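Q: Please design a sequence for this.
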């Protein structure tokens, strides 16, 4: 039976102990080394040649992101799986850009963690569900803002378009935005021109099609 060689890098002894105990329950996984920080991790990885490295993201000294970047250069065949308590977008983006194959929260179940180890070993990308939700949300927001910029819409026009797509009437839009109805009508005409449409229904449909709302 092929065994997956796992290395753990975490500055908390209790975490390393817990992972040691967990991995021992699975015959296809074998713990080949533990390190409490970046310098020892780099040396250890070179000696034990792990298949998968479980790496914390916040440790004293060098960060987990920078450690991941160095490990990817030093051990390009090893797959790095970030195992952390933090799901901040900057951590996730930094880790993935550094070369990590996955990002799992320490709150994940044992089964999810083991499945993640096996998945990254196969070359798959893995994210905890909450991390995935955050990434999808950020991507959706970025795509919407990018589409709005490309359409040349002002902030007021974006908000008017959002209200229009939600079914708001001109008086409702005017009240929501503290504008006169005349101003709303003028801005709607500007929106129609930028979207190359002639009716409210067409504007709403085009906004949805382009991902503007």
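A: Design:
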């Amino acid at each position: 039976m092929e065994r997956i060689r796992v290395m753990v890098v975490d500055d908390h002894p209790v975490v390393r102990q817990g992972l040691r105990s967990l991995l021992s329950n699975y015959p296809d996984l074998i713990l080949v080394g533990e390190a409490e920080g970046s310098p020892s991790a780099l040396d250890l990885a070179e000696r034990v040649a792990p298949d998968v490295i479980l790496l914390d993201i916040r440790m004293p000294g060098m960060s987990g992101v920078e450690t991941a970047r160095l490990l990817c250069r030093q051990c390009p065949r090893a797959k790095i799986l970030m195992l952390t308590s933090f799901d901040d977008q900057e951590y996730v983006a930094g880790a993935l850009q550094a070369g990590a194959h996955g990002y799992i929260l320490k709150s994940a179940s044992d089964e999810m963690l083991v499945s993640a180890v096996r998945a990254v070993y196969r070359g798959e990308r893995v994210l905890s569900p909450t991390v995935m939700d955050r990434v999808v949300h950020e991507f959706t927001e970025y795509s919407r803002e990018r589409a709005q910029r490309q359409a040349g819409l002002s902030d007021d026009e974006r908000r008017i378009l959002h209200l229009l797509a939600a079914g708001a009437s001109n008086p409702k839009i005017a009240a929501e935005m503290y504008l006169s109805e005349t101003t709303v009508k003028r801005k709607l005409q500007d929106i129609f021109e930028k979207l190359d449409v002639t009716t409210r229904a067409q504007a709403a449909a085009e906004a949805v099609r382009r991902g503007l709302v």
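Q: Thanks. Anything notable?
A: The beta strands are 4-9, 29-35, 52-55, 79-84, 102-105, 126-127. Residues 43 and 149 are 48 Å apart (CA to CA).
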